[in-house]
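#struct-queue
[09:14] JT: dropping the first one here, sequence first, then the C-alpha cells:
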Amino acid sequence: MKTKAVKRILLTLVCCALTAALGACSGGKEEENSTQITIGISQDIEESLDPHKMVAAGTKEVLFNLYEGLVKPDSSGELQPAIASSYSISEDAGTYTFTLREGVKFHDGSTVTAEDVKYSIDRCADTADGGPLVPAYSNIESVNILDEATVEVVLKTPDSDFLANMTTAVIPASNETPDTNPVGTGPYKYVSRSPQENFIVEKFDDYWGTPANIDQVIFKVCANADSIVMDLQGGSIDMFARLTTTQASQLGEQFDVLEGTMNLVQAMYLNNAEAPFDSELVRRALCYAVDRQGIMDLISDGKGTEIGSSMFPAFAKYYMPELNDMYSQDYEQARALLAAAGYPEGFTFTLTVPSNYQQHIDTAQVLAQQLQNIGVTAQIELVEWETWVSEVYTNRDFQATVVGVDASNLTASALLSRFVSDAPDNFINFSSEDYDAAYARAEASVDDAEKTENFKECERLLAEHAANVYIQDLPCLVALNKKYAGYEFYPLYVQDVSKLYLVEETTEAETAAETDA
C-alpha cells in the first residue's frame, strides 16, 4: 500500500508540474490544449471568397462551414431554419416570409439585421451585369423588410420549391471586400489562405447554433492525386474525401474508410456547339459505345450508381433509373450512327480532364478504351484545375471533358437549370426548344406532381438528345484518422467539419494510475 501511495503522490506531483508548465492553471483555453485537424482537398479554393460568386464544387464544400442562409440543409437532406428561426409560405407559394433568429452574429462581431438579409438577396438577384448571381432569383419581384425581425420575399410567379434557394449565404451589407474578407455566420470563421497550399479556419465562439468541436481546421491542397496515400500515411493530413478504391486499400489500420456517394452527375460532357458533337447522331453513337457498369467495375470495384441523365439518386423524387437503359452498349448501332453522321471511319477528339481528380482520370482512360471499339480516338489532355475552370467551364473552349457536376441546393432546378439554352452556366452549349419549354413549365407550376413530371421530361429530353454521355454518381470513400470521429455524409457536395471531434484516448499514465489505485 505504501508503494502504491508513493506512486500516486509522485504521479500527482508530475501532473501538477506539467500543468503548471503548460500554463493551464489560468483556467482559460491555452493554445497548447487546442484541437486541430488537417483535411486534404483536391483543388485550391477559388481566388474569390465571395460566396455569391462560387463556381467550383470544391470551393462550395469548404465555404459551407463559413456561410449560412436563412435555412440550411441537414445531413438527411431536410431544410432547417438557420439565420431565420421560422418561416411561412403563402397558399399560392408566391410569398415567403422569414422571422430572423435573435442575436445571430457575423464573424466580425456585428449582429445580423434585416437590412443584411435584404442586401444579400438583392445582390444575388441583381441583373446589372447580366443574369442574376443565383439564377432562381430572376423570379423575385421584391424583398421587403416588414420590421426589424421580418423579411418578405415576393415572387413574380409562384414556386413551391423556392425555399431551397434561401440557403444562399447572408453576408454583411457593410463588407465592401467579400472577395478577400469572407465574413459569414457559420460555425467556423476565416483565418488565412496560402494559394496552392492551404486554407485555414477556426472555431467561431459566438456561433448561434451547436458549436464546432475542433478549434482549428487546415484544408491542405493535395492537387497531386498520386501523393494522397503518402500524405495520409505520413501524417501531413488526417482526412481525405473521395479516395479511389485502390487508394483506400493501401491505407493502414490507423484510418477508418467511410463509404457514401459523391452526389455528383459524372459524365463525359460534350460541347454541343463544337464539331463533331454538334451532331446529335454522333453524341448518340458515343452513348451506345459506353458501358457504364464496365467503367464502375474497373475504377471502383463496381461501386457507384449508374445514371442516364442529369440527376443523381439522392434526389429520389426526380431520379429516373429507367433512363439508364436508353443506351445499352451496342457497337453496331454506334457505328451505324457515326456513318449516318458522316464519320464512317470514326474521328479523333480531345478529352480534357482536370488532373487533380483521380476518379475522372481513371474514367477517361476507360472511356478511351471503349470508344476505340467504334473507331473513335479520345486523346486525353490533363490540365490543372484552374485551367479547367477558365478554359473549359468559363470560356467553353473544349470538345469534351470528364467531370462531375453538383447541385447547389436540394431542388431539381439546381441540376437542370444549366441546360436552358441561354443559361449563363450552360457550359456544354446545349440548345433545345422543347427542353426550354419543359423547364419553363416546371418552374411555373405550383402543383407538385405537375412540376415533378415536367422536370422528369427535362431529364428524358437530355437523354434522348444525348446532351452528354452520362455515367454515374461516384462512390465517396472518406479516409479519416481514427483519432477523429463524427463525419457525416450529406445528400449534397459539402464537407461539414463542425461535426468532427477528437476521440478521447486514455494515456498510459492514466491507465497506470487507475491500475495502482
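[09:21] JT: and here's the second one, same format:
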Amino acid sequence: MTFLDWILVLLLNGGIVLFGFVLARGTTTSQDWFLGKRSLLWWTVGLSMFATNIDNADIVSLTGTSFREGFHIIAVHTLGAFAGGILAAFFLAPAMSRAGHFTNAEYLEARFGISIRVLSAFIQIQYRTSMLGLMIWSVYLLFTKFLALEPVTSWSFIVGLVILAAIYTSWGGLKTVVFTDAIQGVVMFLGMAVIFLAVWRASGGWSGVVENLAAAGDQENGRPVSDILRMRGYGGDDGTTSPWLILTGWIIIGGGYWTVNHTQMMRLLGTRTLWDMKMAALFGVTISIPIMVGCASIGIMGRSLFPDFDPPDALYPHLADLYLGPGLKGLVVAGIVAAAISTFDSMGSSLSAVFTRDVYARLLVRNREDAHYVRVTRWATIVILGLGFAYIPFIREKDTMLKAFLTLIPVFVTPLFTLYLLGVFTKCHPRAGIVGILSGALYGVVALWDREIADVAWLESWFTNRWVALPWSMVFTGIGAVVATLIWGSYRLEEKEAAFVEAESGWLERTREELAPLPEHPFPATVPVLLRPGLIATFLVTVTTLLLFAFFW
C-alpha cells in the first residue's frame, strides 16, 4: 500500500463516516431512530440492503469457499435471495407494517405469544453477532495478509472501525444507516470491479480458467477439478450429497436471512409505502447478484492460478496484493472497509432495536418516556457490536469462515424461519410456535452434536450432515406445529390480536398507536403496469433461474 492508497481509503470511508455524523443530528424520537419516520424511498433502501447483504466477510469467505467447493454457493445469492426477499417484502413486512410492529419479533408475539418473541430476539442476537465475528475476522485477514500489518496494529484498526460505526449508528438510527450504506454500496461495487478485472486478466479470461482446471486432474474425492465450474459438481463434504439438496439448503438459508434477520426487515419497515417496500427488496437483491457471482468467480479463477493455495479465506487479499497497483489497491481496500462499516452499523441498529423493544421494554422497563428508550437503544448498539469479538476463537478453527457460520444455522435460525412461514401461510395454533421451535431446535442440537462433537454411530449422515440438516430442521419444526394444532385447535385471529394488545402496554403500545397507516403506493391513481412489483419479481426470478441453469448448473 502506497501513500496514495491510504489517502483513498481514508478519504472515501472517512467522508462517509463524517456524513453519517451530519445525518445523525436530527434523530430525537424512537420513530426517527427505529423507522426513519417511514419516509425512505425504494432506491435508497435497496442500495442499503445491497450494502448490508454484501459485507466484507461475504467478499472474503465467498472467494475462499468457491476456491475450495466451486460455484454451488451462488445459489444462496440468486434464487435464495429472491425467495427470501420476496417472502419478506411481499408477505411478512406488509403484515407487520399494517399492524404497527417495529420489529419482526414483535410480530411473532402477536401470532405465537411472548415466549416466541423473546426467544426470537435472543436467537437474532446470537445469529447476527456470529456473522459480525466473521466480518471482524475477514478484516483481520485483509490487514495482515494484504496490508502486511502486525496483529496488534490490525486489531487496533478493527476496534477503531467498530467504535466509529457504533458512534454514528447509535446517534442517528435507521435513516443515518440507510444513507451511509447507500454511498458505501457504490464504493464496494467499484472495488469489486477493479479486482475482478485484474484477476480476470491474470487468469487469461474464462477460457484460460477452463483450460487450467481441465489440466489440473482430479480432486481428493476423485472428481475432476473442473467440476468446480458447475453447481452440480459439488457433492457436499463427503461428495455424496445431491446437488439438488444443496440447492434447497441454500434457498432455505436465503429465506432465513431475509426474514429472521431484522437487519433487512428494519429497512423494509422504514419505507414510505408498501410499493417502495417491495421495490426496495427486488432492487437490493438484483444489484447484489453481480457482486456475489463476481466474488465466486474470483475464487474459481484463483483455483486455476494457485491450485494449492492455503488457507482459502486468505485468497482474496493475496490476489489483491499480487495483481493490483498503486491507487487500485486503495480502492479495493476502501471497498472492503466500506462493506465492513455498512454491516457493522446495520447490525448495531437492528439488533439494538430488537433488544430494546422485544426484551428491555417488553419485560424489564415497560412505561418510561420515549427519550429513555432511545438512550437505551444507543447504548445497546455499542454492546451489540462488541459481542462479535467473542466468536473469533470458534471461527479460526474452521476450514473456511462460511462453514463456521453454516454450522450453527439449523439449530435455531431455520426453525425460526419456519415459524414465520407457518404464521403467515397457515392457521396453526399460537402454541404451535413454542412446540414447533423446540422440536426443530432439539433436532438441530442432536445433528450439531453428531456433526461437530461425537459422531454418534447410530446417526446416519443423511440425517445430520450440514445440508440435510436444513430441510430436516424445517420438517421437525413443522411436525411440532402440526401436533400442537391438532391438540389445541386452529388459530383465531381476533382472539389472538386482542390478547396481544392487552399484553403490550406502556411505551410499546403508545409507539404503535402513533404510527400512521402506510400508503399502498406513491402514485396519484394506480401503479403503472410496468412498475408493478409482482410482474417485476416474476420477470427477475424467471430470468435468473434460466441464466443460473444455462450457465452454472
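[09:30] RK: nice, looked through the second one.
[09:31] RK: Residues 328-364 form the longest helix (37 residues).
[09:31] JT: good to know. The CA atoms of residues 352 and 380 lie 5 Å apart.
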